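Quick one: structure for this chain?
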Amino acid sequence: MASFTKNAVLTRLITSIFLLTSFFSWTASALNPDCAPGGNFDLSIWELQLPIGSPGDPETISSSALEGCSGFENFNYFFTESGDGALVMKVPGSPASSGCVTTPNSLHCRTELRETNPSSWSPNAATNRMIVELVVTVADNSARGTVIGQIHIDDTVSSKPVCELYYNSEGDISIGVEQTLSGGDEVFTALGNIPIGTVFTYELEYSSGLLKVAINENFQTLDTYELDAPLSYFKVGNYNQGSSPSDIHVFSITIQH
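Got it. Here's what it folds into:
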């Protein structure tokens, strides 16, 4: 009986080691560090905004230019990490501190993907979900740090977001939800702390009229006040809220409609 128990334990141990090794091998090979981001991520549904160009008119890269292993890269702002194949998105700071450029409706610079297919969707639909695995390696030292994900109101309705997910240099994560279409009245909810340099997953969902957020699968339902389920779209990236650099590495992006 004792021999059988030892053999069973040994078998389970060997199996566990094999599965763990297989997991890390799969993780390491899942992203190709020799490809541009479009070779590792489905960027056919996104366009990219960079923190360069002309003031009020940042450079935008189309989905067709982003796609494929030889697609667009800019090694200052948007590129594949040579070690693990992560998608790196960097912002150097603010217009005053770095000379970066913004859109007409923002004071802040960004390297950010904007959903384009579909270009917008109804929050009353059954499924609108974005799941992102990432690590923030450098966060701006302002109170809010940088926005790592958004649900934005369609441009035909408003220039404001539904909600913005913030991560600061202390590892504090919060979400701000606008109360009205005119904006400028975000209500902030603290979502916890993930130390800088730690890989985590977030989820934003606006389905069946309910706005939800999760950090590492800890879900909260949020009030949407007077927004009344406006047409919306997802954004993911690095939307810097201050004047010092920020740097995020993304390992996966999942969109479900």
